[in-house]
Write a structure and sequence with these properties.
Helices cover 72% and strands 1% of the residues. It has a two-stranded antiparallel sheet with strand order 1-2. The model has no long low-confidence stretch (mean pLDDT 90).
């Protein structure tokens, strides 16, 4: 980075606002050292910027480079000045290699974002330091670089830039800010040339963003230098796609996808540089979107005509979506939307037909109900369920259920579901089919959530009723009553039966009844526990919904 590393002020060991007297004195000192074969080191060498060369030729060249006022200004923009005690303090840290401290000191003076006579030197110094540090070991630090350019732009285009000019060239020298800005821009382009769009470098778009504090004309100028390549690439890929699509329409789906992938980054760059409202960008985006759309149309038509793809919709719709993502405008935008609507209608035509059939049958039920309203029970007509089923069976199948459920189109799903539910209310045997349709719906669908919620609530109520009955139930009740009746008979007096025998029989029967009750109570508690566990599990499932 020669403008900083081999800046004439650095070569001569001077600051950017050194006087002519200091300049001549420094040259004399360097020459004396050179005469005895030595090289003089200075406080402002700043080793962190790399080695500085001080041959006789280097010194002579540096001296001549800053003879004129305009050159002094030019090179001081890429070097350090010392105007205040703040600069003095920061420079002392730089001499010791305390870069972070120097940055912190200068950065504090510009926290409010305003440039003034008090802080303009801090701004240019911080900018130069960050610029020098942004390029190290062959890599470019984008964050430091962008801040350095932003600060320099704010200074150049501020009312205080003349203060900087006077500081570095002396009073009485005035400049054209825009001309200085243009020269600075060219210098930065030259410095960053080998880092543009490279690993460890900076993208063209980020370079342009760095000039946010410069006039719009500067950014447009930079954009003009970078858009030609991406624009040519996009147009070249479009032309290539057109040629291949016409030759092989059966592979147009692949050509359209490849075209989008090959141009995505270039188009994104042009969008960031030119902006969505730029006519040049809009024309290119429309041209690209139109070709991707045409790939979709040609592929779909060829697939249908030659019947070589069972599902030409997926790829065709994907291409239409890609065309829409390009951001077309006007006629092309309308064409993309129309194609999308047409493909969607065609893809789900069997689903729409199924809905129409369901609604037609429901209309027949409604019409018949109206006709029967004023007829006696014996005069009323009924719909032939067998005939209705012969119409419904071909459409109430897994293939349609899955297609409706996976369509992602709420209107199709809701209309099909509503009609299907009403059909079930007329023909209950289709309840199983309806459950199957629900199973195909994604878990996030509100219809499925509400269905599962109602089902779980019904199951919980059923378990609660069963639990209530079990709590009141006497297990083995009939057997216990029978055994108690037997005990009553045993207790009765019988001829020729000894008292001892009677007591033993009573005790045995009493124990049998007691054991059966205990067994029943144990089984009752076990049944209660199972039902309570089922209620807890179902309630947890319900809570998750």
């Amino acid at each position: 980075m020669n403008l900083i590393a081999q800046n004439p002020y650095r070569v001569l060991g001077l600051l950017g606002n050194s006087s002519e007297r200091e300049l001549q004195k420094q040259i004399a000192t360097i020459k004396r050292y050179a005469e005895v074969g030595k090289s003089k080191a200075f406080d402002y060498d700043f080793d962190f910027l790399g080695k500085v060369s001080r041959t006789a030729n280097d010194v002579q060249r540096a001296s001549s480079q800053i003879e004129q006022a305009n050159n002094k200004l030019h090179y001081s923009l890429f070097w350090i000045v010392n105007k205040s005690h703040i600069d003095e303090t920061a420079l002392n840290h730089l001499k010791k290699g305390n870069l972070d401290k120097a940055i912190e000191i200068w950065d504090k003076t510009i926290k409010d974002g305003e440039i003034s006579t008090k802080n303009f030197s801090s701004i240019t110094n911080l900018s130069t330091l960050l610029l020098g540090l942004s390029i190290q070991n062959g890599n470019l630090d984008k964050e430091k670089f962008q801040k350095a350019i932003d600060l320099k732009g704010k200074l150049i285009h501020s009312v205080n830039f003349q203060d900087f000019v006077s500081l570095t060239t002396g009073k009485g020298f005035s400049v054209d800010n825009l001309k200085i800005s243009s020269t600075f821009t060219e210098d930065i382009l030259s410095l960053t040339k080998k880092y543009l769009d490279k690993d460890g470098g900076i993208s063209n778009a980020d370079l342009i963003k760095a000039f946010g504090s410069f006039p719009e004309t500067t950014r447009k100028y930079l954009a003009s230098k970078f858009i030609e390549g991406p624009q040519h690439n996009i147009e070249s890929h479009i032309d290539n796609s057109v040629e291949k699509r016409k030759a092989e329409p059966e592979n147009a789906n692949k050509f359209g996808s490849a075209l989008f992938a090959a141009t995505r980054n270039d188009l994104s760059f042009l969008k960031s540089v030119l902006g969505l409202s730029n006519v040049q960008y809009q024309m290119l985006a429309n041209k690209l979107a139109n070709e991707i759309l045409q790939c979709s149309i040609d592929y779909f038509n060829d697939a249908v005509e030659n019947d070589y793809d069972d599902d030409p919709f997926t790829d065709a719709i994907k291409l239409v979506q890609l065309a829409a993502s390009v951001g077309p405008t006007g006629h092309v935008k309308s064409r993309v939307q129309d194609s999308s609507n047409t493909l969607e209608e065609l893809k789900y035509s069997d689903c729409h037909k199924a809905i129409q059939v369901l609604n037609a049958i429901l209309d027949a039920y409604v019409k018949l109900e109206e006709e029967n309203r004023f007829l006696s029970l014996f005069e009323r007509k009924i719909i032939d369920t067998t005939k209705v089923k012969s119409v419904l069976n071909p459409i109430l199948v897994d293939e349609i259920f899955e297609k409706v459920a996976s369509s992602g189109k709420s209107s199709v799903i809701n209309e099909f579901n509503e009609a299907f539910k009403q059909i079930v209310s007329h023909i209950s045997s289709y309840k199983r089919n309806y459950n199957k349709f629900i199973s195909f719906l994604p878990s996030s669908n509100p219809i499925k959530r509400n269905y599962l919620k109602a089902k779980l609530e019904k199951e919980i109520r059923s378990f609660e009723r069963e639990l209530s009955e079990v709590k009141k139930k006497v297990m083995y009740g009939a057997d216990i009553k029978r055994m108690e009746a037997q005990l009553t008979e045993i207790k009765k007096w019988q001829l020729f039966r000894a008292q001892e025998t009677r007591d033993r029989q009573i005790e045995e029967q009493t124990n049998k009844i007691k054991n059966l009750k205990a067994k029943g109570e144990k089984e009752r508690k076990k049944e209660i526990s199972k039902l309570e566990e089922k209620i807890i599990l179902k309630s947890a499932e319900l809570k998750k919904l």
